[in-house]
Write a structure and sequence with these properties.
Elements (H helix, E strand, L loop, with lengths): L2 H23 L3 E5 L5 E4 L1 H7 L3 H4 L4 H5 L14 E6 L5 E13 L2 E10 L1 H26 L3 E6 L5 E4 L1 H7 L3 H4 L10 H17 L3 E10 L2 E13 L5 E10 L1 H63 L4 H34 L8 E3 L1 H11 L1 H6 L4 E5 L5 E3 L1 H18 L5 E8 L2 E8 L31 H11 L3 E6 L5 E8 L8
Parallel strand pairs: 12-14
Antiparallel strand pairs: 1-2, 1-5, 3-4, 4-5, 6-7, 6-10, 8-9, 9-10, 11-13, 14-15, 15-17, 16-17
Helix pairs in contact: 9-10, 10-14, 11-13, 13-14
The chain binds adenosine-5'-diphosphate.
The site of adenosine-5'-diphosphate (ADP) has 21 residues, from α13 and α14.
Amino acid sequence: MTASSRNSYDEFVTRYHELQALFDNALDAVIGMDSTGCICEWNRHAEIMFGWKKEKVLHRSMAEVILPETGRGGFIFNRRVEMTALRSSGEEFPVELVVTPVVVNSLSFFFAFIRDITERKKIEERTAEIKKAYAFVDALLENIPDMIFVKEVQNLRFVRFNKAGENLIGYSRNEMIGKNDYDFFPTSEADFFTSKDRAVLQSKTLVDIPEEPIHTVKGTRLLHTKKIPIMDEHGDPEYLLGISEDITERRQAEEDRHRLRQERLARAEAEKALALRDEFISIAAHELKTPLTALNMQLQMLGTVMPELMGGQTPRQKIFVELMKDSQENLARFSGLVDDLLDVSRMAAGRLIIEPVEVHLSEIVNRVIGRYTVALRKAQCEIKPRMAPLPKVHWDPVRIEQVLVNLLTNAMKYGVGKPIEIESKLEGETVVLSVKDYGIGIAREDQERIFERFERAVSAKAFGGLGLGLYISKQILKAHGGTIRVESEPGFGAKFIIELPLRSEWNGI
Ligand code: ADP
């Protein structure tokens, strides 16, 4: 040190000594360095902090004394920096340090103010850990698909609310927090929720609510909720934690499954009942057929023999002859019904057989009209056939006649006193045959189902019948590769339209 620098330094030291008491009482370590970085001052706190007595460090490089080897760079002036410092014991510890240059009589000195920040670092680390733990819990709450809410116990106001809850209820957490159930839900619902909350807080145990409806912005939902009291350090409830699972869809799916099961059961029952009915019809029709055929023959014999035997034409004999005729007609109708039942059971069992032969359609039509001349007259139905000349067709004449009889008798039954038109034409290879009446007609909603078994569109009281004629007709035509449909306006009659290929092969049904 030169003489002038010595003077300057002494002057500075004199000033410094005036401040020494202050430095020594300072909580920070204060270290003075000369322009070469050697220690020229070392306060009491520096001794405590670094474990070196002042005399042991005077004139040594400050960096070498207080910094570990790896951390020795240059100092930045007038800026707080955090560094790792070294105690005499070799222990490293974190410090905050400010180096301030001081110029006295154009000589530079440096003062380092150093604070041990071990405790602060610990607190910072702990705080960071706690923050991380909070963030983790937050992330957990946010990602749990169930609604999670926390209420304070005094007024049961929401203090936490997760994303699933926002989505479920339809309010943001900012809207929910600080408010309670009465701010969002109908009073009866809020009363229910609150009563459960109070029960949880009173019992200090978990309460499970398996099913509770809740009004949300998107409509009513069903929740399965668990409510749990959160205790403070004295064991008293401080918060109420709620976890609610939205079970609306699950309940709906369960109900749907239940309904489907019921429907399947009902269908199975109905099918079983239908099978029983079919079996019964089949047995009954077969059992009836034999005595009916015999009765028919006997009546016919009686019809021819009795008038001869009795002779004469007395009024009583005339009555008897009329009775015989009526009996025969009734028996024929009865036989027709039994035949229909037999056909239906044959069709259900897939035993309908058709035997196509070469035949003229006009022959079939004329035969039917001929058979029903009397009936047509009785029903006061004028018949108007308009038959286009057709080549021979290849159909089962008995079965097609059966179809025409069904349509004609229906036209008479449902259109008494009105004319009936029978028309045929050829469209390519298809014969289009129609039977039109001007009777009661058929409502649109019934026009399909009347072709099914036992389906009728009229009351049994108003019109007798089993609802089988159209079903049988449809099956016969189907077996020929043909179709039948109806066009009708209620009150304006009905037109049944048959389409049949000129040549049918048996389409077994
Ligand atoms: P049924 O006449 O013996 O009841 P069908 O199978 O022949 O049985 O007819 C089924 C139903 O279709 C009838 O009950 C009736 O409601 C309706 N229907 C059939 N033909 C006619 C028609 N020409 N006019 C009005 N309704 C008809």
